Amino acid sequence: MRICPKCGYIELNWRTNRWRPYVEYRWASEVEELISKNLKDGGTDTNELFAYRLAGKSNLIIERVPIQLFNAYGRKAFSMNYEHAEHFTDPFQKKLMEAGTT
Q: How far apart are CA 53 and CA 25, in angstroms?
């Protein structure tokens, strides 16, 4: 569940993946309107906010990641787990975090 800090909009239907912090998923049967021919052929599809792909053994799940991550890392954005998430932090933010700990 995502809540917008500015307007308070609550998005209930997308669930966050337990092991991959930037990936949200939903059953494909719930979002038939998002499934394009490109997704069915094993590709990805994008809009102004997210990139989507079909996942699972029978393509029963649709996953999405923020478009900024997809533009920066391509299909690797779908497989970033918690262990590697710190490597994808903005370098300026890393310097601020290091300065705050010393």
A: 10
Residue 7 DSSP SS3 = coil
Q: For 37-73, what is each residue's pLDDT tens digit?
A: 777 777 788 888 889 988 877 778 889 888 888 888 8
Instruction: Using CB atoms within 10 Å of the CB of residue 60, give its burial: 0 to 12 exposed, 13 to 18 middle, 19+ buried.
Output: exposed
Count of other CB atoms within 10 angstroms of residue 94: 12
* Domain residue limits, the chain: 2-101
Torsion of CA 37, 43, 46, 51, to 10 degrees: 130
Beta bridge partners of 26: 62
- 75-90 pLDDT per residue, tens: 888 887 766 655 555 5
Q: What is the pTM of this model?
A: 0.69
Q: Which residues contact 40 (CB under 8 A, 6 or more apart)?
A: 54, 59
